[in-house]
C-alpha cells in the first residue's frame, strides 16, 4: 500500500463524504433502517450521524484498513454500538436471512464485483427485509455518460477503485431484489459526471 492509498486518499475521501450536499440524501436513505442492520462500505463512518433515533446497534464492514483512523474515532464517539469487520462484501460471513436492513451508500461504485456483493446482500436479507441505497453512477444523458466512461480509468486509480459509470438500478434489479422506490437527480455544485445519484430501496420478497 503506497503513500497515496495509505494517507492521501483516506483524507480526500473523508473530506468528500463530509460534503453538505450529501447530508439530506443520507438522512432520507437511512430513515427506513430498522431491526438488525448491516452497513456495507462503512468508509470513514460518516453515516453514523444520519441513522434514525431508534437505531442503537449496527454491524458494519469495510475492507480498507487505511480508513480506520477516521472510522474508529467516529465509532468511539457514536451513540450507536458498531460491530465492525474488515470484510469484502462479496463474501459475507453471515447466515442467510439474518438482517432486516442492509444499507449501502456511495459504495457500489468501488466494490470490485458489485453483482456478487448484491447477491450476498440479498442472501443475508430476511424475507421482507430492505436494501437501502444511495449511489452515484451512470447518467442517462449520452454526453455525460461518455465522459463518465472516459474518466473512469483515472477515477479508479485515484478514487480507491471507484467507477463513475456503474448502472445502480440495473445492478440492484439483477440481484433479484425488487426495486420499491427509486429517485434520480444531480447533486448541486457537483460536476455532472460525478453527481448523478440513484437513491431508494429494494425489498427481498418471500420467493
Strand and helix layout:
Elements: H1 3-17, H2 23-30, E1 37-40, E2 57-61, H3 68-77, E3 81-85, E4 99-105, H4 114-124, E5 125-136, H5 142-158, H6 168-174, E6 178-186, H7 192-195, E7 196-203
Parallel strand pairs: 1-2, 1-4, 2-3, 4-5
Antiparallel strand pairs: 5-7, 6-7
Question: Mind explaining what this structure looks like?
Answer:
The protein has 207 residues and is α/β, with parallel strands linked by helices. The chain has one domain: Rossmann fold (3-Layer(aba) Sandwich). 35% of the residues lie in helices and 24% in strands. The termini are far apart. The mean pLDDT is 96.
List keywords for this structure.
single chain, alpha/beta, 7 helices, 207 residues, Rossmann fold
Short description:
This protein is 35% helix and 24% strand. By secondary structure, the chain is α/β, with parallel strands linked by helices.
Largest sheet: 7 strands, mixed
Tell me the CATH architecture.
3-Layer(aba) Sandwich
Computed Rg: 16 Å
Sheet with most strands: strand arrangement: 3-2-1-4-5-7-6
CATH superfamily: Vaccinia Virus protein VP39
Number of strands: 7
Shape, principal axes of CA atoms: globular
Strand content: 15-25%
Instruction: Kindly report the CATH topology.
Output: Rossmann fold
Total domain count:
1
Mean pLDDT: 96
